[in-house]
Design a protein that fits this description.
By secondary structure, the chain is of the alpha+beta class. It has two domains: 154 residues, Beta Barrel (Lipocalin), CATH 2.40.128.20; 127 residues, Calycin beta-barrel core domain (Lipocalin), CATH 2.40.128.20. Helix content is 24%, strand content 38%. The chain is built from six helices and 18 strands. Strands 1, 2, 3, 4, 5, 6, 7, 8 and 9 form a nine-stranded antiparallel sheet that branches. The chain has an eight-stranded antiparallel β-barrel with strand order 10-11-12-13-14-15-16-17. A hairpin with a 4-residue loop joins strand 5 and strand 6. The longest helix is centred in the first third of the chain and has 32 residues. The termini are far apart. Bound molecules: 2-acetamido-2-deoxy-beta-D-glucopyranose (8 copies). The site of one 2-acetamido-2-deoxy-beta-D-glucopyranose has 6 residues, from loops. One of its GO terms (cellular component) is extracellular region. It comes from Seriola dumerili (Greater amberjack). Its main location: secreted. Keywords: Glycoprotein, Secreted, Signal.
Length: 334
């Protein structure tokens, strides 16, 4: 009997000691868990990541977060913190929503939405993650999101995130379903070079053009959607393609496309040839709305080498088509 009590007492003592040491160390642990990132490495930041989990201080909005199938965050910069592009995509009710912001990194923070959202990078032990704390309208509410290059994290990485959320006294995080589709990445047409005036004039009538690449489930790429803003109305064209070598061919047309070299890090240059390999058109695409002058000049030189007319450069202030994922089949121009 005595030894049983002694054991019981021992257990209670341990529980008591643990809870004492926990209550003492908890604030310290939380302080460690919620440290802003000391140094932001732009190379590490670059590229697209997927939302793995998130929490919100507003219960209405956490329900909306739960309804999201997926979300992504991407950063790109030209190696200057004052000129960084921050893009988000979200798949909600089978529709893709995109947003793009021109941001200026200040230490481990940046603001967007005209200063309404102050975002801070928080330290995380997950090596390919970024952890963002959004302070909306001066503390009215807080969003706390973990993004990773992987769709699914290790348990200990999720546990760390849950502990961080708990430290903030926020509701337990919503953990995203890694099997859900991602929104396609969007690329904007920057400039086009044509071999004939008719096509050049037609190109110039477009206000803007974007390409949505297929989502992650579709590899290799077998189709993409182009959205043209033309005369204030949007056209969405889907094309089926077959990848071949360093390019692809359209199913509906006898046109082959070759990717050409470009020094622009987030661009694509595509050359469109007819059956006899005669260059017809070429396009410069970028994830940014506007590229640098030297990148345009390089593209113009490439068009010149292929005996094309001087390229037309799209107006970056024109509206992009509403970002929708259209699966509709239509005749394409190639
Ligand atoms: C939560 O967000 C909803 C929708 O934006 C808003 O109507 C509501 O007032 C917010 N609740 C609190 C407590 O801030
Ligand atoms: C980045 O872009 C800014 C503004 O367009 C430009 O002034 C700067 O020279 C660029 N930096 C690099 C490294 O290209
Ligand atoms: C992006 O920000 C830079 C620096 O603040 C500015 O020079 C540039 O015009 C902005 N571009 C757009 C498209 O807003
Ligand atoms: C944004 O939040 C950080 C971290 O709390 C703070 O240091 C910074 O001053 C804030 N920036 C603005 C513009 O409020
Ligand atoms: C992604 O691709 C699959 C297969 O083609 C398609 O069923 C799904 O609707 C696509 N999702 C989005 C968001 O486009
Ligand atoms: C552009 O739209 C206007 C008004 O909808 C229409 O009258 C005009 O014919 C259109 N122009 C072309 C080139 O389609
Ligand atoms: C494009 O591909 C889809 C799905 O594979 C198919 O249903 C459709 O018929 C194809 N369209 C054309 C024009 O080849
Ligand atoms: C593509 O070329 C082949 C052979 O030259 C021809 O038979 C076919 O009709 C052409 N298809 C189209 C869509 O022009």
């Amino acid at each position: 009997m005595i030894s049983k009590y002694r054991v019981m007492f021992g257990v209670w003592l341990i529980v008591l000691l643990c809870s004492v040491s926990l209550s003492h160390s908890a604030p310290l642990a939380c302080e460690n868990l919620l440290q802003p990132l000391g140094h932001l490495d732009l190379n590490h930041l670059e590229g697209r990541r997927v939302l793995v989990g998130g929490s919100l201080s507003n219960l209405t909005l956490i329900d909306r977060l739960r309804r999201r199938d997926s979300a992504t965050a991407s950063f790109s910069s030209n190696a200057s913190t004052a000129n960084t592009n921050f893009r988000r995509s979200m798949l909600l009710d089978n529709k893709c929503h995109y947003a793009s912001y021109n941001i200026s990194l200040e230490g481990s923070s940046f603001t967007f939405d005209n200063g309404a959202v102050n975002t801070t990078f928080i330290r995380t032990s997950c090596h390919d993650c970024i952890l963002l704390s959004f302070d909306v309208e001066s503390g009215k509410r807080q969003h706390f999101y973990l993004f990773s290059r992987r769709r699914q994290l290790e348990q200990k990485e999720i546990d760390e995130f849950k502990a961080q959320v708990e430290c903030l006294n926020m509701p337990p995080p919503v953990v995203m379903d890694p099997s859900k589709e991602l929104c396609p990445e969007q690329t904007t047409t920057i400039a086009g070079g044509m071999s004939d005036t008719a096509h050049l004039e037609k190109f110039k009538t477009r206000d803007s053009a974007t390409i949505n690449y297929p989502n992650a489930s579709e590899t290799p790429i077998t189709s993409f959607t182009r959205n043209f803003n033309f005369n204030d109305s949007c056209q969405h064209l889907q094309s089926n393609i077959t990848l071949e070598g360093s390019g692809y061919s359209f199913h509906q047309h006898n046109i082959t496309v070759t990717f050409l070299y470009t020094s622009c890090p987030d661009c694509l240059v595509m050359r469109f040839d007819d059956e006899s390999k005669k260059p017809l058109r070429m396009y410069l695409f970028s994830r940014r709305r506007e590229v640098e002058q030297k990148e345009i000049e390089e593209f113009s030189a490439q068009a010149g080498c292929l005996n094309m007319l001087p390229p037309a450069v799209m107006d970056p202030t024109k509206e992009l088509c509403p970002d929708q994922v259209s699966r509709r089949e239509e005749e394409t121009e190639g």
